[in-house]
Amino acid sequence: MINKVAITGGTHGNELTGVYLIKKWQEQPNLVHRENFETLLIHTNPKAIKACRRYIDKDLNRSFQTTQLNEEHDHYEAKRAYELNTMLGPKGSKNPKVDFIVDLHSTTANMGLSLVVSSQSSLTWDAVRYLCAKEPKLHVYRWMGDEEDAFVDSIAPHGFAIEVGAIPQGVLRANLFTQTAQLIYHLLDFIQRYNKHKNIPTNQNPIEIYDHVKLLDYPRDANGDITAMVHEQRQDRDYQKITKGDPLFYTLAEKTIYYEEEEPLYPLFINEAAYYEKGFAMCLTRKITLT
Ligand SMILES: [Zn+2]
């Protein structure tokens, strides 16, 4: 039984889709009200939202490792992570305060409507399958990573993040705003049916997902400055296969750098603005079918 669902937005303060969806639903709570569970609406990073910045001191969406949550910190986001974990978790608990978290993000990459899933819970994956059936344009990026999952949604036993783009930082786009809202309504309908133990019209067909393989950085000089940009023939082609010999980067010296890996992979988050400081130009994924 799912008793409480938290919809969270503004984890990155300059990703306005989530910030304003939360505001919209706070003003029209009937849209996210369902009969057999409670829906909480939370702005996770109020200071960053006010400043319209990704974060104040550090990335909140990388602040939920269990070890970090148990230590004292001076950083604003670390304190906020502690508060959110107390309010919604605690992480790993058998009796967490919320059962499902969906965290709203946007990206400057041309990701369309995407889910980023790190949870292994079967309920989470039933929800993913349901949403794929409802929304054929939806892409699913599975990030299991080798580090502990430190995302906001990791506080609850079930959940994922929604990433939509391309949207510049600090900007709202009506089409993606509306599509994100619709995805949330489908998710809430799914949870309502799950709670009623009725037949969940889960997608029994295999679904295609994109499994994280590795992060790819820009070419850099000895000082760490980038020396190339994403090649124009790769820009905006998220979820499209890249094969050995395809143009990848374009250097300041006007040279093309080609993709060298033997295995064709699928780049995501291509040229995401927030990832320049993190040191990667895109994520490389493998397309697999889940039966
Ligand atoms: Zn984000």
List the helices and strands and how they pair.
Layout (H helix, E strand, L loop, with lengths): L3 E6 L6 H12 L10 E6 L2 H6 L14 H4 L6 H13 L11 E7 L5 E6 L4 H13 L4 E4 L15 E8 L8 H23 L10 E10 L11 E3 L16 E5 L4 E3 L7 E3 L13 E9 L1
Parallel strand pairs: 1-2, 1-3, 3-6, 4-5, 5-7
Antiparallel strand pairs: 4-6, 7-12, 8-9, 9-10, 11-12
The protein binds zinc ion.
The site of zinc ion has 3 residues, from loops.
What does this entry look like structurally?
The longest helix is centred in the middle third of the chain and has 23 residues, at 174-196. A hairpin with a 4-residue loop joins strand 9 (247-251) and strand 10 (256-258). The protein has two domains: 4-205, Aminopeptidase, CATH 3.40.630; 213-286, N-terminal domain of TfIIb (Single Sheet). The chain has helices spanning 16-27, 46-51, 66-69, 76-88, 122-134, 174-196, and strands at residues 4-9, 38-43, 100-106, 112-117, 139-142, 158-165, 207-216, 228-230, 247-251, 256-258, 266-268, 282-290. The mean pLDDT is 94. The chain is of the alpha/beta class and 291 residues long. The protein is built from six helices and twelve strands. The strands form two sheets. It has a nine-stranded mixed β-sheet with strand order 2-1-3-6-4-5-7-12-11. Helix 5 crosses helix 6. The protein binds zinc ion. The site of zinc ion (ZN) has 3 residues, from loops. Zinc ion (ZN) binds at residues 12, 15, 105.
